[in-house]
Each structure stands twice: as C-alpha cells, then as structure tokens.
Amino acid sequence: MKLLKQEILLEHYHILRKKIANTIAGANPYMYPATDWYALMLNDAVANQRYNLNLSGGGTVARYYIAATFNQDHGLMKVDKRNNFNNNIDLKRYAIRSNVNINVTKKTKSKRSIIYYN
S-S: 102 plus which of 68, 88, 96, 110, CB 3.0-4.6 Å? Predict the structure, then answer.
C-alpha cells in the first residue's frame, strides 16, 4: 500500500514537472498559459489625495483650534473599458476636530472638544 502511494506521488511529480517545463518553454499557450496575473489585474501605481486645514488662535482668556481633513483613496485594480462597472475602492473620508480652552478664573479652566468623522 505504501509503495502504491509513493508511485502515485512520483507520477504526479513527473506530470507537474512536465507542465512547468512546457509553460516555461511556451510550448502551447492555450494548454500551458504563462499569465502574469499581477501585471494583468493591477496598476503599477495609484494616486491618493489628502487635504488638511488647521486654524488656531486666541488670547489670554480663550484659545481655539480647528482642524479639517479630507482623504480619498483609489483602488489599485485595472478597469476594463468594455465593462460598465468599476470594482475598485473609492473611499472618501472626512474629519473635523474643534478644541476650545477658556480660562474662567486663574485656577479654573474649561476645555471643550468636538470630533466628527465618517
């Protein structure tokens, strides 16, 4: 039984070696295709966007800080012009943050923060 399993494995090994050799040689592109799936499906680079805006100011009694961010991430997959759909990611994210610090008295301070993101 053990010998039979070894013979079957050896036969599969020889078939696999033959397929690899024929693929490298380009013997029959339909029977032994050598497809570079990464080059076929993915772009080399993608442009993502990020915008930031920060404002801060104030005086001795009150200070403020406002920050806004916009990010847009695009997908890395190639899109066939013949198709009417795009399965790439097109992620858009927004974030806003606001801080206000107020000195009510010399020893009492008030701090408020608001954060929004999607």
Answer: 110
Provide the pLDDT for residue 28.
84
User: How far apart are the C-alpha atoms of 70 and 51, rounded to whole Å?
Assistant: 5
Helices (runs of H) and strands (runs of E) counted in the chain = 2, 4
pLDDT at 6 over 80: no
The predicted pLDDT at position 99 comes to 96
91, 93, 103, 84: which is closest to 52 by C-alpha? 93
How many angstroms separate the first and last alpha carbons of the chain?
Answer: 62
CA nearest neighbour of 23 among 36, 12, 10, 13 = 36
Please state, as a whole number, how many other Cβ atoms lie within 10 Å of the Cβ of residue 69: 15
